[in-house]
Amino acid sequence: xxxxxxxxxxxxxxxxxxxxxxxxxxxxxxxxxxxxxxxxxxxxxxxxxxxxxxxxxxxxxxxxxxxxxxxxxxxxxxxxxxxxxxxxxxxxxxxxxxxxxxxxxxxxxxxxxxxxxxxxxxxxxxxxxxxxxxxxxxxxxxxxxxxxxxxxxxxxxxxxxxxxxxxxxxxxxxxxxxxxxxxxxxxxxxxxxxxxxxxxxxxxxxxxxxxxxxxxxxxxxxxxxxxxxxxxxxxxxxxxxxxxxxxxxxxxxxxxxxxxxxxxxxxxxxxxxxxxxxxxxxxxxxxxxxxxxxxxxxxxxxxxxxxxxxxxxxxxxxxxxxxxxxxxxxxxxxxxxxxxxxxxxxxxxxxxxxxxxxxxxxxxxxxxxxxxxxxxxxxxxxxxxxxxxxxxxxxxxxxxxxxxxxxxxxxxxxxxxxxxxxxxxxxxxxxxxxxxxxxxx
Length: 441
Fold this sequence. Notes:
globular; 3 domains; 4-stranded parallel beta sheet; alpha/beta
């Protein structure tokens, strides 16, 4: 249903913009003109892209849940796209699209976006019951899995039963105890821990369920497919058993560098625009150097100097974990962080090859030394170039202590295992959506 809602939203945007453009060209404009042969056809495509991108960025149609959030996202996304195309027209100094088309599309699409979001909501309520999971393993593993699913999964599911391997021994009265539980709970997925995988009595029952259409996953594979991460208990065991795109596929490494350079060059434009405003604002609300420089650990453990707009008091201790509502963050620095403008100078690091657009976030040497001692496999993340954004950032956010760092490492291993250009682009798109919706710390 959500896929249908997305297609309907995109179709509505195209119909609204092209339909109004054709009608304006034939019936409103004086003299009439051929829309498809005019330069306005190309700008209509740009406007379609802006409307679709804004809708996605503000969570439409499938991330808005309440009526208020649906209406708000519909109004703000359409007006943002209209403001963007209007700003371009102002800079260019000519009417690229008629106001009839720009604002007529807003009026048509606000109710259409609302309809699509509600359609996606109906599908979401059904999807949340689609995957009903029976866990064969420890109660601790099941509790962790339940918590992870509640935090937000890539594929919606819920744990409906947890069984210890000893509970599944066939008896005279019940020869297939697992089948009875699966049928009673209407389960669609069975998840096995390591002990269950090595028990032939369980495997025989699972094989029968598999033939009947019930999906079977190991605990590690379920985490990977439903949660987009690898469980911490499996990190060391699987750390060698997959290829890493940047290390094992030279073509990907070249494609990645081309993308980094392209984004870095484009990023110089907003950096040049924002820097003077930051310089002036620092004089009043953030006195001190404009740039924050700090040594971070890069690819293969090589140190480099990361650049940011300074958001903390000048001369303060920057070697300890940053906490929520950290007193070292100035009011203007808080604005820079919440808007993510403090990250803009890192386009220089991208062009210099210190970091990539996507990858594990670079950490300070002291943190790395601590985590390396506690997590023997931690250094695997340094086989690839660190990134401006990453899968751990869009899935988990900011790391404020060692526990957060371990949590993020599970997502980083998932990224290493699936690293390719399409996944990188997916992460960038989700980062943009996250920034637009004001998520992150």
